[in-house]
């Protein structure tokens, strides 16, 4: 285990849940069309896992869509397709406070290939794990040295909510020292506009705090005296003086990336009041 990882924090992050209200769009032909599904999902999980474990059985059973294939299923929020390769919690955080339960729609036809990727969710997840390994250590040797069983366990443990199984493998990938922090920063102007994704080489020795890293990436939003934006990770407002190396080890998502949502602070209409 990394010397910076706190198992209690890791468990709290893993246990974070998001309530969903899932409705089948009215253009689909199905039984019980007006009956939504209500479910609590892990923030660290992914929509394809939700499909496999909850939605697909419901589509085939409760909704009577016996012939639907898992690769035909996709999701949207307010008519905008949701990126299935993003963690579910990140998708919600990018919306800056949508009402709960989060009301999303599930579709079984007309897959929007112009907006959503096609491919294996597990392969995409492992690709992110490898990228994080390369950023952190300068190679993917640690991932490549895992057995085939351990490769599969990283993904399967998300679907089965098996915290111990996941960390039994992942602890071998995030040990010290770290060259650069695997970090993705999402700049959002409004929930209706797509976020701007920022990545750069962020060394924890050079940028010791989260605020220092963000000042390097977004100097106009994070001047030293008065930050102009809020920082959200796993739905939590995170202090800028949080040590970056600690945040990377304890607040990263299951893909080992620190996903940071930046929301510009709203200007007050009457600042003097």
TrEMBL record:
Topology with respect to the bilayer: Peripheral membrane protein
Location of the protein in the cell: Preautophagosomal structure membrane
Keywords of the record: Autophagy, Isopeptide bond, Membrane, Transport, Ubl conjugation
Domain (Autophagy protein ATG5 UblB): residue spans on this chain: 181-262
GO biological process: autophagy of mitochondrion; cellular response to nitrogen starvation; piecemeal microautophagy of the nucleus
Gene Ontology molecular function: any one: Atg8-family ligase activity
Superkingdom: Eukaryota
Any one Pfam family match given in the protein's UniProt record, by short name: ATG5_HBR
GO cellular component: Atg12-Atg5-Atg16 complex; autophagosome; mitochondria-associated endoplasmic reticulum membrane contact site; phagophore; phagophore assembly site membrane
Domain Autophagy protein ATG5 UblA stretches: 13-108
Location of the Autophagy protein ATG5 alpha-helical bundle region domain: 120-174
Reported function: Involved in cytoplasm to vacuole transport (Cvt) and autophagic vesicle formation.
Family: Belongs to the ATG5 family.
PANTHER family cross-referenced by the UniProt entry: AUTOPHAGY PROTEIN 5
Subunit text: Conjugated with ATG12.
Protein name in the entry: Autophagy protein 5
Species, as recorded: Syncephalastrum racemosum
Taxonomic lineage of the native organism: Eukaryota, Fungi, Fungi incertae sedis, Mucoromycota, Mucoromycotina
């Amino acid at each position: 285990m990394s010397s910076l990882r706190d198992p209690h924090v890791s468990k709290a992050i893993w246990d974070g849940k998001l309530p969903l209200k899932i409705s089948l769009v009215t253009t689909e032909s199905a039984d019980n069309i007006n009956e939504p599904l209500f479910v609590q999902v892990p923030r660290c999980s992914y929509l394809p896992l939700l499909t496999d474990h909850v939605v697909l059985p419901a589509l085939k059973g409760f909704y009577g869509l016996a012939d639907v294939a898992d690769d035909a299923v996709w999701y949207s929020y307010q008519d905008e397709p949701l990126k299935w390769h993003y963690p579910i919690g990140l998708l919600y955080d990018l919306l800056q406070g949508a009402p709960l339960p989060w009301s999303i729609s599930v579709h079984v036809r007309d897959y929007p290939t112009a907006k959503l990727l096609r491919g294996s969710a597990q392969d995409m997840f492992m690709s992110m794990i490898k990228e994080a390994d390369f950023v952190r250590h300068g190679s993917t040797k640690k991932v490549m040295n895992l057995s085939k069983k351990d490769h599969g366990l990283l993904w399967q443990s998300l679907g089965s909510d098996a915290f111990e199984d996941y960390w039994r493998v992942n602890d071998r990938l995030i040990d010290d020292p770290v060259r650069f922090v695997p970090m993705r920063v999402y700049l959002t102007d409004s929930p209706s506009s797509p976020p701007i994704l920022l990545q750069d080489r962020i060394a924890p020795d050079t940028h010791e705090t989260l605020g220092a890293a963000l000042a390097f990436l977004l100097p106009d939003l994070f001047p030293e005296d008065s930050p102009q934006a809020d920082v959200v990770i796993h739905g939590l407002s995170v202090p800028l003086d949080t040590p970056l190396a600690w945040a990377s080890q304890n607040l990263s998502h299951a893909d080992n990336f620190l996903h940071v949502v930046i929301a510009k602070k709203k200007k007050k209409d009457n600042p003097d009041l």
